[in-house]
Amino acid sequence: MSEQLKQKKTILYVEDYDMLHTLVRDVLKSSIVVSALSGETAIDIINTHPPFDLILLGINLGKGMNGIELCSVIRSNKKYHNTPIIAITALDFDKIYDKVNNAMFTAYIPKPYKITDLLSIQSRYLEVG
Fold first, then answer.
1. Is 0.90 surpassed by the pTM of this model?
2. Alpha-carbon distances of 110 from 76, 93, 114, rounded to whole Å
3. What share of residues in the chain are helix, strand, coil (percent, to 5)?
4. What domains lie within the chain, and their CATH numbers?
């Protein structure tokens, strides 16, 4: 097996509720999960880290940039044109569909989400599992 196939996939998880970071890292332990509590921190991480294989992105990130704005910034980076970016939100998806679609998210997970939702996304987009 080549080194590239053995290497763990990387996920950037952006969420302002810090208690969820440990849960997501524990659930998605077959990947390397890097966490950010804000959009601004996520941009700093993206600019200093090798490209991520998957990005899980909260929509309501508290103060500062929201997840829709952050997704647009990430997509403007050519390294991330084809990277799966998954929106995670408790907001009514029907009300934000156009914004999420325009920001070019790949998929959407409603909150509260189930552990199986996270594992399904990981398996689908990273072929891990």
1. no
2. 25, 8, 9
3. 45, 20, 35
4. 3-121 (3.40.50.2300)
